[in-house]
Amino acid sequence: INPGYGTIITNNTAGTGFDIIGGVGPSMKTYIPASNTWAGILNTAIPIANQKGYMVFVRGDRSVITIGAAPTIANLRTKGTLYTPASPPPVTNIGSTLFESVGNPYASAIDFSNDVGVAKSANVQKIFYVWDPKLGAGYGAYQTFTRGVLADNNYYVSPGGGSYGASGSVNTTIQSGQAFFVHTFGGTGTLTITETAKVTGSSVVTRVPVSVGKQLRTNMYVTIGGDKVLVDGNLLEYHRSFSNVVDILDAIKLNNTDESLGLFSHGKTFAVERRSPIQRTDTVFYKLGQLKTGQYEFEFIANQLQEPGLGAWLEDNYLNTSNRVGLNDTTRLQFNVNNDEGSYAANRFRLVFARQRHTSVATVPVAVVEKRSPSKATRSISVYPNPVVDKTIQIQFSSQPIGNCNIKLMSKLGQLVYNANIQLGSKDMTRSIPVAGMVSGTYQLRIIAADGNKTTLQVVIP
User: Fold this and answer.
1) Distance of alpha carbon 129 from alpha carbon 371, whole angstroms
2) pLDDT per residue over 341-375, tens digit each?
3) 231 close to 137: Cβ distance less than 8 angstroms
4) Which residues of 289-311 are buried (b: 16+ CB within 10 A; e: fewer)?
5) CA separation for the pair 174, 50 (Å, rounded)
6) Distance CA 374, CA 272 (A)
């Protein structure tokens, strides 16, 4: 054993060369795009060079052989033939609407924002993801980097923290020896990395954002031993050039192994979503995952979202409370998770934009609410956005019974203009209704769930 160098490689299935056979999974694995899963390496005799990179669990150097042992510094080294202009790295092919992992092929950091050195075909989103072992309270979580608006070629981190500075810090660098994820939208794509992508230095490059437009960052912290630890977050950006339909500018969320906080929209979960300017009937649906018993805190960092008469409220489906969220400042709200299913339900929270509410019912800070009659995950049906865009009504079903569901759309005069039965295959899903050709105006959407429960919503078709 050479102290300070190398690490042990383990697997839960037999194979040649592993230091230990056992445990619940492999310590070294590669990504499988088609199934969005990981597969352990078959043995340690395979060439270390791998276009996709690896996910490796490093306990420490080779003296650390158990998870519970104290970690040590571990220097990992490889040797082999370097890529040159005459012998460049292979092109990475990415399937349609899939993630793909890519290893930095050079013994040098590269600049992802360099679209010549890191050439992205048309369907490759200008977004990249990395695993940050310093994020969260467990083994780490994913950081998402999205390109700025219009001519802004910087990449901004969400949720931030960990290795990459505060939320919104700029980083365009993939380090030597680091792998990252990319994603396609609308078809297959390719990623080509060449010598011109190389940059000097080997430290993480972060700095204060050069510009911040209309946006809402939502970070989630867990309290451990009196300290708050950032575990995940997401970002909503608003601009007139953005669309409310899913497009190449929106960043699909990669699943964390521990706590996660995503944006649920159009039947998908996002880390970053870019939308048209806020309408006074907009709703943000949050999606929670892997929460544990304990105390958590939301941090809402809003910038330039204030408008005359516009307000925002965080609705808690578990406690049936509503709390005001500022639109040009930072709001922090605490909540607790216990063994009751409703307290950790994926759809527990949503943020509702509306005209300023004038009501005598007081909102109570979530941190001090005494739970008297907590409910299970609250079932709901909503339309987003409303007024609808692109002549399509997006209906979001939350905690609805599985089975046949009847949908009717009535005009202001009571005329039936749409009638269909759909099959809900899961409790949480989104369905679309095309309304091209319908006269602009206000309509009634009537929905009868599989158990006979009736919901009536007002929908505006511009």
Assistant:
1) 38
2) 889 999 999 999 987 643 333 333 333 333 333 34
3) yes
4) bebeeeebbbbbbbbebeeeebb
5) 16
6) 31
Average pLDDT over residues 312-323: 89
pTM over the 0.85 mark: no
Contact by Cβ (8 Å): 446, 455: yes
Q: What distance in Å separates the CA atoms of residue 189 and residue 98, rounded to the nearest whole number?
A: 10
Both tokens assigned to 412: 């202001």
Q: Give which of 247, 319, 307, 251 is closest to 282, Cα–Cα.
A: 307
Is 454 in contact with 447 (CB distance < 8 Å)? Answer: yes
N-term to C-term CA, the chain: 71
Distance CA 54, CA 29 (A): 6
The total of other beta-carbon atoms located within 10 Å of residue 431's CB is 17
Asked if residue 303 lies in contact with residue 328, where contact means CB atoms within 8 angstroms, the answer is: yes
* 209 backbone φψ class: left, alpha, beta (φ>0; ψ -120 to 50): beta
Per-residue tokens: 14: 């037999």
Neighbours of 460 (CB within 10 A): 15
Concatenated DSSP letters of 152-220: ---EEEES--TTS-STT-B--EEPTT-EEEEEBSSS-EEEEE-GGGEES--S------S---EEEEEEE
| Gap between the Cα atoms of 150 and 283, Å rounded | 25
Structure tokens at 5: 């160098």
| Average pLDDT for 8-26 | 91
**CA–CA distance, 170 with 183 (Å, rounded to integer):** 20
Give per-residue pLDDT as tens, 46-70. Answer: 988 899 999 999 888 999 988 778 8
Q: How far, in Å, CA of 310 to CA of 277, rounded?
A: 12
Comparing C-alpha atoms, which of 435, 401, 404 is closest to residue 421?
404
Residues 88-109 pLDDT 10s: 999 999 999 999 999 999 999 9
Q: What is the DSSP string of 313-350?
A: EEEETTTTEEEE--SSSEEEEEEEE-SSGGGG-TTSEE
Q: What residue spans of 334-412 are helical by DSSP H?
A: none
Tokens encoding 216 = 């809402």
Q: Which two tokens stand for residue 420?
A: 């269909």
Task: For residue 409, list its beta bridge partners.
Answer: 418, 445
pLDDT band, residue 376 (cuts 50/70/90): very low
Task: Dig out the tokens for 259 from the structure.
Answer: 């706590």
